[in-house]
Amino acid sequence: MAIRRRRYCPECDSRFTTFERVQLRELTVVKKNGVRRPFDRDKIARSITMAVRKRPVDEEQVEQMVNNIVRKLESMGESEIATDLIGEMVMEALKNTDDVAYIRFASVYRNFREAKDFESLVGNLGPAKKKK
Question: What is the model's pTM?
Fold first, then answer.
């Protein structure tokens, strides 16, 4: 999903690497208060990385989740995306990957204040997954 390029700086005579991604369209995020900001894929990556911290989820899985979310957003055909939609997509990706990471993200995203707030969320997970 990224193009790796080796570059050369004639001023300092150094070589360096850049990574470029194809962006299908310019996306704008509409926050709950109506403020519009340019879409930043790194914010999604940071949020997912924080949720999966110390969990058995590797960087490749995180990158794949981010790529899938971005691809879905770009293919929707809309140039303005609500933060609610992005949050729900991240929650769905985490739910399919790691239940603990899903609960961590949801507790921050939905602003849980008490233990009872977790009850309905945990109830939606269904039976515990059996390890092989």
Answer: 0.70
